[in-house]
Structure formats: structure tokens, C-alpha cells
Design brief:
Elements: H1 3-9, H2 11-14, H3 17-21, H4 23-34, E1 43-47, H5 53-61, E2 67-71, H6 75-85, E3 91-94, E4 108-114, H7 123-133, E5 134-145, H8 151-162, H9 167-176, H10 182-189, E6 198-209, H11 211-215, H12 218-221, H13 230-244, E7 253-264
Parallel strand pairs: 1-2, 1-4, 2-3, 4-5
Antiparallel strand pairs: 5-7, 6-7
Bound molecules: S-adenosylmethionine.
Length: 265
């Protein structure tokens, strides 16, 4: 199952309280709160908008002269986002992806994306697409996951879950997500934005939670476990809880988020 099909399958779980309260939920909320839209935009776009929570809140508080477009490849998430936006005449969510944006060249004043760019299958084509659709003075804000997200956490538990997956599933999992270093992000973006103010910020932040708390975000980035039976999943979770004891502190189990923020002004 591709990552897009998995997201569509898990759409009804995406807005669960647990997922929204998880570390990735907090990161989305914080990133969205810090977003400062370009002044007087005509067109604002969010790519990988999921169920449209952030886009809907922007549309609600925004000017009705501004056109808002979400781009979301997972059908059920797109349906859910369009449901939230249907009361507004100036917003819609289109089928599309970073690799092929359903947008006119030089049309976007501000394009933002939260926790989605790491899913692109073609890095070069996607950056080219972003450069194509932005106006010459358009703003870009991308927040996405870097190579080392959850390194220690996953090192402890991956062997447990991998034992229950087929070789094909493990290979598919490894190739699904871009795992970029700071140098690779720089190399990918600099040539396309050489004449713009490009800033790439790399951060590492550790969040502490219970295993249940951590697993409540699994539908965001480790959705391939959706193919496991409940019974196998429970067996793996019990073994993972044991394995993670070695990392546990009095604050809980640590997970270090590795993030990039790419900004173009
Ligand atoms: C972790 S969710 C983030 C959703 C929302 N932005 C948030 O922060 O809650 C990742 C989103 O990226 C979408 N996605 C996956 N592959 C993509 C691609 N190639 N281009 C654009 N979006 C993609 C998924 O369908 C999903 O909605």
C-alpha cells in the first residue's frame, strides 16, 4: 500500500484527540501558529493539507478576497478537508502532490506545508514545481521531517516490528520517506532559489511520552503498520514497551524530532 493510500485509509483516525495531542500534533499546531502570511496575498496554498484543519482555520479568519487552495493526494483526507471548507466560496482542496502541483506557473503569493514534504517521491521535480508555481516575490514555508527523526526510539523498536513484516513491506517502508540531511536540503533548494532569500533551519527537539502517547501519532508517519493484524500489533507493542525501558527516564520515553524549515522570501 502506498503512503497516499495509507493516509486515505487512516483518514478517520487522523483527527483523533490522541493524534492531535501527540508530539507531531503539537509541532503542526506550533508551526501553524508561527506562520506569518505575506501581506495582501491573492492566492495562498497549503500542500499536503491532510484533513484541512489548519487551512480551514486560516480561511475562517482570513479576508474573503483571498483565494485559498489546499493540495492533498489522499482521497478521504481531501473529502474531509473539502467538507470543512464548503461553507466558504474562496477555498477548495484539489487532488495533487508536490511532484505535480495542480497550479498555474507564477500564481502563488504564499505556499506553506506542514509535515508533508518528506513524502515526495521525486525531490528535484518537487522543488522545481515549488519554484514554478511561486510568484517571483512569493513566500514559501515548508516544515518537514529530517533523516534522524526518532533515531534512538526507532533503533530500539524497528527490529521487533520488522520481524512481523515481509521483506517487501520492509523495503517499501524504507523507500517511502525522504530522509534528508542539511546538505541534501541545501543542494536541492539553492539552485532553484539562487536569486531569493533562502533560509534553511535545522532543529532537533526531544519530546517525552508514554509508548501509547507516542504511538498515537503512528497514523501520521508509520502508517504502514496499518497492514498488521490487531493481534500481531499487540504482541509487537508489548515487546517494544520492554525494549524502550532502556531509554525511559522519569519524564517518559524520549523521541527526538529532526526537522527542517525551508523559508523563501
Ligand atoms: C503527516 S500528514 C500532515 C497533514 C497536515 N499538514 C498536518 O500537519 O496535520 C502528511 C500529509 O502529506 C500528504 N502527502 C503524502 N504524500 C504527498 C506528496 N507526494 N505530496 C503532497 N502531499 C503528500 C499525506 O496524504 C498527508 O495528508
Amino acid at each position: 500500500m502506498s503512503v497516499i493510500q495509507t493516509y486515505s485509509k487512516l483518514a478517520s483516525k487522523y483527527e483523533s484527540r490522541e493524534n492531535l495531542a501527540s508530539l507531531w500534533g503539537k509541532i503542526t499546531e506550533r508551526t501553524f501558529c508561527a506562520l506569518q502570511l505575506k501581506e495582501n496575498p491573492k492566492l495562498v496554498v497549503e500542500v499536503g493539507c491532510g484533513p484541512g484543519l489548519e487551512l480551514a482555520s486560516l480561511v475562517e479568519s482570513g479576508n474573503t478576497d483571498v483565494q485559498f487552495i489546499g493540495v492533498e493526494p489522499a482521497e478521504n483526507l481531501r473529502i474531509s478537508a473539502n467538507e470543512k471548507l464548503k461553507a466558504f466560496g474562496n477555498a477548495e482542496v484539489l487532488d495533487g502532490k508536490f511532484e505535480e502541483l495542480p497550479l498555474e506557473s507564477a500564481s502563488v503569493d504564499h505556499l506553506y506545508s506542514i509535515l508533508a514534504f518528506h513524502w515526495t517521491k521525486d525531490l528535484n521535480k518537487s522543488v522545481q514545481e515549488l519554484a514554478r508555481v511561486l510568484k517571483p516575490d512569493g513566500h514559501l514555508d515548508l516544515l518537514f521531517i529530517g533523516k534522524d527523526a526518532g533515531k534512538d526510539f526507532l533503533k530500539k523498536i524497528s527490529p521487533i516490528y520488522f520481524k512481523k513484516l515481509s521483506a517487501r513491506q520492509v523495503l517499501d517502508m524504507a523507500s517511502e520517506r525522504q530522509r534528508l540531511t542539511a546538505e541534501e536540503v541545501e543542494e536541492a533548494f539553492r539552485p532553484f532559489f539562487a536569486d531569493r532569500k533562502l533560509e534553511i533551519t535545522e532543529t532537533f527537539e526531544t519530546f517525552y511520552d508514554t509508548l501509547e502517547g507516542h504511538w498515537s501519532w503512528w497514523c501520521r508517519i508509520e502508517g504502514q503498520f496499518a497492514t498488521m493484524s490487531q493481534e500481531t500489533r499487540k504482541e509487537c507493542d508489548d515487546a517494544a514497551r520492554e525494549a524502550l525501558k532502556a531509554l525511559e527516564t522519569e519524564n517518559g520515553i524520549p523521541y527526538t524530532a529532526h526537522l527542517f524549515h525551508v523559508s523563501v522570501r
